[in-house]
Amino acid sequence: MKINKLQSEIFNRIAAGEVVESPASIVKELTENAIDAGATEITVSVRGGGIDSIRITDNGCGIDFDELPTAFLPHATSKIRSLDDLDTISTLGFRGEALPSIAAVADVTMISRTTESEFGGKIGYENGKLVMHEECGASFGTVITVTDLFKYIPARKKFLNKPSREETKIFTLIEHLVLANPNIVFKFDSETKHFSSPGEGLESAVFAVYGDTVLKNTVAVELDEPPMRVTGFACVPTFTKPSKNYQNVIINGRYVESQDIQYAVYSVYAQYLMKRQYPLFVLHITMPFDMVDVNVHPSKLQVKFADTVKVKSLVARAVKDAVLPKLTDAKKLDEEDFGVEPSPDYGKAHILRSFFDVVPNMQVAASSRQPVADEISTEPASSFVPSSDIPEPPPEKHYLDMQSVEYGAESAERFDPVVCEYIGKLFNTYLILEHGDNCYFIDQHAAHEKLLYDKLLRSYESKRLQTQPLMIPFVFDVSASDAELINENIDLFEDCGFGISPFGDYTFTLSYLPYECAGIDFQSFVSDLLLLVNSREKSPMILKERLMQSACKAAVKGEIDDLSKTEIESLLGEMSAKNITLFCPHGRPIAVCFSKKEIEKWFKRIV
Ligand code: ADP
Ligand code: MG
Fold first, then answer.
1. Is any ligand 1 atom within 6 A of the Cβ of residue 486?
2. Distance, first Cα to last Cα, the chain
3. What is the pTM of this model?
């Protein structure tokens, strides 16, 4: 086999694969060059998701006319000179790969002018070859235009996503850049979108990217422990997100992905979070350049710390100090709000499955059914109904049979809330009922939620859904990727009676909802909505059912807890009349039963 030395043209294209995989990676390299050049204002303009064109304008130091071709040579960089420099890299770029790689896969024109120069210079590459290098008029700084990505490499063009998806990726990158460089003014435009950040510090950057609601629900983080420092913002524990997309780690000004840091922050919130809820944060961590290696990943997204344990503990402490006062508040709130997982151990209590359920002889083990966390399950379709280990309510006949059985204190008894005597309410949540030798606890929220859900589902199925407009539409902000997912589902929401429409790029309004869901807790609903669109569930019917479940959950949350005696009676009456299955739409039990005998055992009256 003959060994060939590759021509630079081929070599560059191979190398380009590492740097250029999508329009977003080009934007990343070019904006980083602008930042390294000291720009205070950077404009990113894309068309066709960046596949047709990307233009990046900066007011940085510019490149001398004579140096323009050098900038496009492989491994040509002004940022490092010697091997030693690699240990103390303070610039975003340093490998000298970006410009030649981009010129190898797209047509490129660069116009640049330094402050010392009277003219600007222009250089052009087509199909990897220099086609132009001439003087021209220009303002200070650099404009680079990249057109027709992968025009000469159709095999790679096939792997690009549709333009809207590529644009979202670019925009997510811009959001990260804004958060990482809060003192730079960023402007972005595409056929459909315009965005700009003011460049007035991190608070204004968080506001520009996430909006007012997020900013109001975060606290400032600041811990200075030379030579390291952590600053930024972290959410209060009651304001979490259904994905990790809102976790921003910036090390020495470089936006990175770091599971270590994510875990460190998560550890502070862990006990207060529902399953699949994550904290939102923007953290700037600074440390001497020799304490972190940025040269471990082609796109420099990952870093390696010299002392990971130290960095993690510092970050955890910084966040804890900031949110600890909020956590103490949080503890006082309803446990359910923080998704503390219900204990699967019900002792000798018996979870009732339906009104037809019987209280088993207490020698029989208690139901082993584990309540599922109150959340949108990502399990297969069938799981939205109380899962299969809960038997269907026995048929009427069975019930009649049970009636005909002579029973004593230990055996069967039909549970009917209206027949029971109402004793009182525990923890403002659990209704206590007594009948015969049994004591029942009813979770009033779960019961209410179940009734609402059944009603809503019936209206939907019988096509008699009535909607109610909101006097003041509820406005909410989401991330770029969540916005795309919401947009994809707008018709589905509407079909279920929820009027959600775009209101700006990443802002939506909820302007009407089903009649049954009046009084909804908007935050809780929107947070479930995001969880829902992020779940990989494709079936529209299941999505609709889960949407309605979330709405009912949020509607119950939004209601006052202090039910009057008459309201309690009507709730129990309705439960009885509708013969509901005694599990809420999320699968949590609604009613639990204790026998007198079991209680007598507690007090050793019997053994
Ligand atoms: P690297 O950023 O790793 O040095 P690049 O290929 O991205 O490599 O850029 C090569 C060189 O071109 C840089 O080192 C820098 O000197 C110069 N350069 C690139 N873009 C700009 C810009 N926007 N403004 C000023 N100089 C630039
Ligand atoms: Mg570079």
1. no
2. 88
3. 0.61
